[in-house]
């Protein structure tokens, strides 16, 4: 675990990602502490998944600049062998589409067992037993039978649970969850998110949830970072009481999570962090920057 609790577990500093000289992610700053649940939200194409893949250096053709600090060490400067050790053991990832991420030639049980053998040094017999337990812990019915099932023999929800079991089996300190509910029906999304929260509490790991579903974000996240195609910055956060605060300006936001503008101006305001435009509505003049009467409404 992190030796210094006051130090972020993961910290991105001015991260830029470019393909063939074309920048696709620029200037990302983000920090995650041990045990935190952070959501990274943004529109399609804003670079959410690319940012997560960059943490584990899984983009072979990309040019990465800036810093990706893992417990104070810059992952961009680590050797391939060291990155191979960190992947899955210290930082794990749930990929967006389990049918392409899972190996179609191996049963889901074999894939989870392989992780435990490689990362935890367990024997084949012990790893198989632990794999069955992880399938049970992730809510898969009849886990002993599902252990011998191939990915195509499972439903979409079961495949996602199996992917989650494989990611958390080695008990990483940080889990990167890339749109883990996108391929699921609406009725299953909240169940999957509750399962992820239960696993996070059980293992004590930190979670970076990548999504564009703000309803799920509000239900799950302690802190939220907004990334856009304009200026990706950490913009707003959620306190333990569930209230939403802007990180650009110290103003309490309404429940629908829109951004504020400075008081005393009736013209539309553009958030300097996320680049989104908003207008202000107030019930009385604001006398302090943190006045709860200062509200923002989306500017269309």
Question: How would you describe the overall organization of this protein?
Answer:
By secondary structure, the protein is an alpha/beta fold. The C terminus is likely disordered. It is 29% helix and 27% strand. The strands form 3 sheets. Strands 6-7-8-3-9-10-11-12 form an 8-stranded mixed β-sheet, with helices on both faces. Strands 2-1-4-5 form a 4-stranded antiparallel β-sheet, with helices on one face. The longest helix is centred in the middle third of the chain and has 18 residues. The chain has 9 helices and 15 strands.
Radius of gyration (CA) equals: 21 Å
Secondary-structure class = alpha/beta
Strand content: 25-35%
Give the CA-CA distance, first to last residue: 46 Å
Mean pLDDT: 76
Instruction: Please tally the β strands and state the result.
Output: 15
Annotation field: number of helices: 9
Secondary-structure element order, as H and E? EEEHEEHEHHHHHEHEHEEEEEEE
Low-confidence stretches: 230-240, 244-300
| Main sheet record | 8 strands, mixed
Shape by Cα distribution: globular
Widest beta sheet: strand line-up: 6-7-8-3-9-10-11-12
Helix fraction bin: 25-40%
């Amino acid at each position: 675990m992190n030796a210094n609790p006051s130090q972020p577990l993961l910290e991105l500093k001015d991260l830029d990602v470019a393909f063939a000289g074309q920048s696709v992610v620029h200037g990302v700053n983000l920090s995650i502490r041990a045990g935190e649940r952070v959501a990274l939200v943004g529109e399609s194409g804003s670079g959410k998944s690319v940012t997560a893949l960059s943490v584990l250096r899984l983009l072979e053709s990309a040019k990465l600049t800036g810093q990706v600090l893992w417990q104070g060490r810059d992952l961009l400067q680590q050797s391939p062998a060291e990155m191979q050790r960190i992947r899955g053991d210290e930082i794990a990832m749930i990929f967006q589409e389990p049918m392409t991420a899972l190996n179609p030639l191996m049963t889901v049980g074999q894939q989870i067992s392989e992780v435990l053998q490689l990362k935890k040094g367990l024997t084949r017999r012990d790893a198989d037993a632990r794999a069955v337990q992880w399938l049970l812990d992730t809510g898969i019915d009849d886990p002993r039978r599902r252990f011998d099932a191939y990915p195509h023999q499972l439903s979409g929800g079961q495949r996602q649970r199996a992917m989650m079991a494989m990611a958390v089996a080695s008990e990483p300190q940080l889990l990167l969850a890339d749109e883990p509910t996108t391929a699921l029906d609406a009725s299953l999304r909240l169940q999957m998110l509750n399962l992820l929260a239960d696993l996070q509490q059980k293992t004590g790991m930190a979670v970076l949830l990548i999504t564009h579903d703000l309803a799920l974000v509000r239900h799950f996240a302690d802190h939220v970072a907004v990334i856009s195609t304009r200026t990706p910055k950490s913009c707003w956060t959620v306190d333990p009481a569930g209230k939403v605060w802007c990180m650009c300006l110290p103003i309490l936001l309404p429940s629908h999570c829109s951004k504020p503008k400075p008081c005393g101006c009736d013209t539309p305001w553009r958030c300097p962090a996320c680049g989104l435009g908003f207008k202000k509505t107030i019930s009385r003049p604001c006398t302090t920057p943190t006045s709860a009467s200062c509200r923002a409404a989306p500017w269309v």
